[in-house]
Amino acid sequence: MKNNIKELRTAKKISQQELADRCHVTRQTINAIENEKYDPSLQLAFALAKNLNTNVDKLFISEQ
Q1: Number of domains in the chain
Q2: Of 5, 31, 59, 62, whose CB neighbour count within 10 A is largest?
Q3: Which SUPFAM superfamilies does UniProt cross-reference here (predicted)?
Q4: Whole-structure pTM over 0.85, yes or no?
Q5: Does some domain include residue 61?
């Protein structure tokens, strides 16, 4: 699933590790999500949105 996480994270000057710590996951998980190798759970998607001050609809891009 395509996403805007890296763009939003870098715009806020947050490292992958900092975002991972805030969402209680590993840096590798954030990296895999950003590189579209892993789709997060709904719970993690909401945590990412909260920590990036956005909503889930703006984080992920539908590929339909």
Answers
A1: 1
A2: 5
A3: lambda repressor-like DNA-binding domains (SSF47413)
A4: yes
A5: no
